[in-house]
Amino acid sequence: MSSFPRLTLYDTTKQFIPIYWTYCGIGLFAFIANLFIVFIYLSSAQFRSRFTLFISLAIAEGINGAAFLMAGIARLLMEDSFRAMYSYPRTLRSDCALQFENSLLVIGNQGPAMLSLALGIERFCAIRFPTTYRHFKEKMFHVLLILSAVICITSLCVALYIGLVIEKDLLASLPCTLSNAFGFTYT
Length: 187
Known about the structure:
Blueprint: H1 9-13, H2 17-42, H3 45-50, H4 52-81, E1 91-92, H5 93-97, H6 100-128, H7 130-166, E2 171-172, H8 178-182
Antiparallel strand pairs: 1-2
Helix pairs in contact: 2-4, 4-6, 6-7
């Protein structure tokens, strides 16, 4: 009778390592590319005043890239910790919700969407109401930016409330994805 060696968690999940490295690579590329875009826009006073929403969009996309990079690194570190484990550790939804990269992923996902909506509204107003647009252009930029930021922060607060208060004691599986951190109703 032959006995099979007992496999560690690392041995059973190591096929995901290339995916986590891909998270890191794409996140790093997105972060550096958007940092470059922000520096280009900030290099000129005319660009700074004319492309405020585009600068904000590049910053939001940079946050998303940083979140992907951090999520990839966190998952690689988690995978490395599995080398000596034979069963998954008990993980609660609140543990996943407290991971910083998940909060950054929420902001990084919501921010570009809200700013794209703001850009669409701004372009619609510029075409549909040109005289009014010219008069309120500067105020409109700031209102749209603030509104986008408020929506993103509210979204993050709702997600954290779900993960840390409402469903804090639910068991979550690893890795701590957005669904495991904040619930399927949110994501």
